Amino acid sequence: MRKSSGKIAQDGTRQRSLRALRNACFAAAGLLACFGTVYAFQKPFRQYHGVEYYSFETPPDADEKTEFQFARLMFPGGWNDGYRGRFDGDFRLGLSLWTQDYPRADRHFSQAVKRLTRIHVRSVEQPVNLDEDEEFDQPWLYAVQVGEWGLTAKQGKELREYLLRGGFFMADDFHGNVERKVFEDSMKLVFPDRPIVDIPDDDPVFHVVYDLTEKYQVPGQAHLRAGCKNCEDGGRGAHWRAIRDDKGRIMIAISYNSDLGDAWEYADDPYYPEKVTSFAIRIGVNDIIYSMTH
Length: 294
Known about the structure:
With about 290 residues, this protein is of the alpha/beta class. It is built from six helices and seven strands, in the order H-E-H-E-E-H-E-H-E-E-E-H-H. The strands form two sheets. Strands 3-4-7-6-5 form a five-stranded mixed sheet. Strand 1 (about 70-75), helix 2 (about 105-115) and strand 2 (about 125-130) form a beta-alpha-beta unit.
């Protein structure tokens, strides 16, 4: 016996409704899964023990979701690691060379970026491990003591991929000929065919926010009296260098014979020269804005 046209219409409407409900359920489940995946990769804030600061007060907004955070690169020490013999544990657990100035420098500088720009900045830093592909969510990455590190071939490959995708790396705090050679050798693991070049005074990275027409050598706090570290072995005189991509964009900004991290770390110390700290902050702000606009 055939169904009436009214019955057929009702069945068709019911089936369409069921399909729509099923599709809506699948879409909702997919959306929830997407949000779950995003938040799964947003690692909760963790503070590591540093070589200078074993404990540090954590701000109440440490887990705030922001558009920018101070991304500090984690790495193993090299053959000339100044902490070798004192701190020889797993670099992934902190208390290692990469924690020099950490977290005081990171938080002072983050506070400065908050005040000097309109960028929504988190109050605390984010340590980044190249071995765990944590760098790709960061437009800007910073490392200290890069003349004493032991960057591995795998980490060099990861850093290259990050930079070629548009990332920006700020390499800081290495001094003299020995540390320069260690850093240059490590860069061959990242870009074996790209030269390290001096940045000219008229480059946009020196003018994107602040016009940095006068540039100073930034000494570490322990070397203020001498004015430099490894002074008699090539440590005198600041050099601002870079590695660029095929279009001329700076991928790696290099501060050789300067210690910007110390200038940030001691920004609230009256013993440390305000002129030098202000310059170091301006260099950092320019690098961040450059990294987000070029």
